[in-house]
Amino acid sequence: MSTSTEQPADLSAATTLLRFATAGSVDDGKSTLVGRLLHDSKSVLTDQLEAVEHASRSRGQEAPDLALLTDGLRAEREQGITIDVAYRYFATARRRFILADTPGHVQYTRNMVTGASTAELAVVLVDARNGVVEQTRRHAAVAALLRVPHVVLAVNKMDLVDYAEPVFAAIAEEFTTYAKELGVPEITAIPISALAGDNVVEPSANMDWYGGPTVLEHLETVPVSHDLTACHARFPVQYVIRPQTAEHPDYRGYAGQIAAGAFRVGEEVTVLPSGKTSTITAIDALGEAVDIAWAPQSVTIRLADDIDISRGDLLAPTGDAPATSQDVEATVCHVADRPLAVGQRVLLKHTTRTVKAIVKDIPSRLTLDDLSQHPAPGQLVANDIGRVVVRTAEPLALDAYADSRRTGSFLLIDPSDGTTLAAGMAGESFATGKAVAATEDEEGWDF
């Protein structure tokens, strides 16, 4: 049986959860940082550490290569790179963590989008010898596009620049200026050496000029808001429950997970896209009747009126219901190997609703190096990020992604085989950016 090398302090107090992602250029040390974080926080199982030590010795390395703790694919180990997103779960006495170690190669930008899409914090690594490079700017831009609220700049390999403060200060200033232009709300710069362990879990004796937190200390203390009750209340219907039994002859409930906000018995709600209204008469959670439920609880809601509601419909407070539309303007990251072209027929999946759609226009493709817009590219290929205008066969109730990452996001899917083509974010691209103007409707569309 696997046992931990050392159990951390009492984890009963670790009630909060932080989802975070790591990103950076190739060989900047992302996997080593993650391995060091897991190792020094006593979150590595004995057999895992023994396997890493054995693999390191077979390569002729005296010290264990902690990057092997996250590079799980054979191709990753053989090439010494990260290809897929590696998720790791660990906890300290202060907080629980879900960590996504994302690739650094340009061709795996889509994987970074996947890992950071649910993150509340992104750790962007920079090699102190190279400073801010093209891929650093690309990852900062992706974090800004995905509205990740906290970004940590980890200036790694400080041991290779003699722990020089001016080197760190220059890199931190350049990155912070760029990230603020993107609208990133909070940036924290930390000088580290993942290989030596400086400022990862324990403070570094080699950088007494730095008085800020270590990486782990910042991860444990950064304020993260899980109060989705303050967001616009949204309830995508996943399943309609009608037992029609002798015990429950007239029961009709709408089951699903509350995406945001809170719902109360007695509250008037609007059903979208139909626009019909009713009042919540009961909320069932875990077999018990409750007066109030909030995100991300899974519940069954019952209404006073017998309305035609099915999977994909959305319940929202009548005074705070989103507008419905068949025209979607959004930023998408193209994740498929096949291109996305103007005129292409797709499926659009938003929460529990999937509708037919047509790509009406691709106004621009984003050049992440300098944030310029390449107009009218005609199509998007793998790892491209661009603006799209999509016309759907049925109305959708999308929020702006800036208001809700849950109900402002969607997927574009190939209807022929179900392949995910692109991940979309409705509304404007960056917090400080301007939306690309949509072109006028063209003739000849089916809907």
Structure, explained:
- The protein has 447 residues and is of the alpha+beta class.
- It is built from 7 helices and 25 strands.
- The protein has helices at 30-40, 46-58, 74-79, 109-116, 134-145, 165-182, 215-221, and strands at residues 17-24, 86-91, 96-101, 121-127, 150-156, 186-191, 235-236, 239-241, 253-257, 262-264, 268-272, 276-285, 288-290, 292-294, 298-303, 314-317, 325-334, 340-341, 345-350, 353-367, 372-375, 379-380, 385-396, 409-413, 420-426.
- The strands form 5 sheets. Strands 7, 8, 9, 11, 12, 13, 15 and 16 form an 8-stranded antiparallel beta sheet that branches. A 6-stranded mixed beta sheet has the order 2-3-1-4-5-6, sandwiched between helices.
- Helix 5 packs across helix 6.
- Residues 1-13, 73-83 and 433-447 have low confidence and may be disordered.
